[in-house]
Design a protein that fits this description.
single chain, about 210 residues, alpha+beta, Jelly Rolls, seven-stranded antiparallel β-sheet, 16 strands
Length: about 210
């Protein structure tokens, strides 16, 4: 009898670990503008443009990660980061980032970018997983201050965008463009989705102290 109890306990621990793993990594899209819309790109490098981003709307969830459509020219070095800022101005018209940075992602080594535009993920961790208040406007930015005219990071956008937000870039000052929209994805942690996905994947559940494998 003890043998079966031990086996059951080990199985429960293993399943719990799997649930936690899937629970943590399930994400949902807060806002986005699909890469199929991309028809242009621009560069980020020192003494040119060092911050570029898109306004979007929060949905009350916790920030997890973001994606941009990126490539490189030449052999840039150093790290880029994604940041979240508050929004000022008219959303979709002349909005720009304002105030201090609200969240900063982990580093992206730009030397690892390819010469082909690719959706590239930057992840927020710990205290950087801020709550994106429902209905509140924000900016998600890519920041890179290294490189030069011949060695830089490039980011895709749409010159005739249809996203309801707007594009903004920083040189010495912020400038906005209501026609342009950046290719981007902002993701939140989707806890319920993670739990459901795990149940579907494993086909396992515990019922009245018994391990059931379907």
């Amino acid at each position: 009898m003890k043998k079966y109890v031990i086996i059951l306990i080990v199985a429960v621990i293993a399943i719990t670990a799997l649930l936690v793993k899937n629970y943590a990594f399930a994400v949902d899209v807060v806002d986005s503008y699909n890469e199929s819309n991309q028809d242009a790109y621009t560069s980020l490098y020192n003494n040119y443009c060092i911050k570029i981003g898109q306004s979007f709307t929060g949905d009350g969830s916790a920030l997890d990660s973001c994606k941009f459509y990126l490539k490189k020219l030449g052999s840039p070095t150093g790290n880029a980061t994604a940041t979240i800022y508050a929004h000022t101005g008219t959303f979709g018209t002349d909005g720009t980032p304002t105030g201090s940075v609200l969240a900063t992602s982990g580093n992206l080594d730009v030397s690892n970018l390819t010469e082909t535009l690719t959706l590239t993920t930057l992840t927020f961790a710990g205290a950087e997983k801020i709550t994106l208040a429902n209905g509140t406007k924000y900016f998600v930015l890519l920041e890179y201050s290294g490189g030069d005219n011949d060695n830089n990071a490039r980011i895709g956008f749409d010159v005739d965008g249809t996203h309801n937000g707007n594009f903004a870039r920083y040189t010495d000052v912020w400038t906005s463009n209501s026609s342009y929209d950046l290719i981007f994805y902002v993701y939140s942690e989707e806890e319920d989705g993670g739990r459901q996905a795990t149940q579907i994947k494993t086909g396992m559940k515990i019922n009245s102290g018994k391990l059931i494998i379907k």
